[in-house]
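Q: Convert this sequence to structure tokens.
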Amino acid sequence: MSNVSSGMNYAPKGKAKPVVKPGEFVFSAVRLDHGHIYGMCNGLTEAGGTLKYVYDKDPRKVEAFLKAFPQAKPARSEEEALEDRETYMIAGAAVTSQRCELGLKALAAGKDYFTDKAPFTTLDQLASAKEMVKKTNRRYMVYYSERLHVEGAVLAGYMVEQGLIGKVVNVAGFGPHRLMADRRPDWFFIKENYGGILCDIGSHQIEQYLYFAGEEDGKVISSRIANYGNPEHPQLDDFGDCAITGKNGTTNYFRVDWFTPDGLRTWGDGRTLILGTKGYIEIRKYIDVARENEGGNHVYLVNGDGEKYVNATGVTGCPFFGQLILDSLNRTENAMTQAHAFKAAELCLQAQAQAVDLTPDLSGRK
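A:
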């Protein structure tokens, strides 16, 4: 199955737009437990980053990675990459529950850290990361790819910034995913390891809400989880939803699930609707269902000037990665603030922790 059909291996590629010269920003990839590491490294190398080392305890993962990134050098150990003096940043896609551990090591070694989402599975991990960031003055950045690596979402952000829909009052997000259970690693089905659906793919939705609504904080009003269709994996949440009220009075609702049908051409019909006081925006991120046009990045804008459709593919690029590189070199916060990255993580952990479990008795989970 192609990467377009498989969310776990979805690794967007764009046009190279270097912000630094070769060798000016060196990074290394450590722990390849999730396929998102490919998208993370694509983004950094397209922005001019130099990929030096790759390490994983599984040599088969390293071998596959080197086919995509032959410029990387296999490290003899994790420590070799972490302690390398040329490396500014460690990019990692560890098992979710182990991402904080790797991040603490990276920061302690004087590196910035760029991890796949979700960055934590417990609030204790978040607290330890905050403490280490404060102690080391290094960055703990997160690959919230459903906004950062989707040109339609980037364009929508520009539209919001330009005031084309007035003040944002509500963001609704929908994040369906294809499960492909037979291709998932064992850890994916153990809640202690993956954190639960609201912690995992819910983190994308909460991050987008905070960004589009311009919120710095919020409160989880309600959240629900369930295992409706996968009783053979009793610790899996295959459905989750959540409602949040922001500190400034905006609202958010999102739904995430693992029920993408095999007939869909891509791994999930991800959508975001942004309501403002003067209009609204819909982003159809990966597909426009039942239409012949290929690909995603479909943006619909409706405001006082009328209706507008834009295919954002190739329009905006994904500036986050170049900004992240420059932030790491210059100690600025243009790509994403540390507070924003951590607040999205905190809210998804709270949503998961207080979620009502609606799993039917027949699944054996209750």
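DSSP finds eleven helices and 15 strands in the chain.
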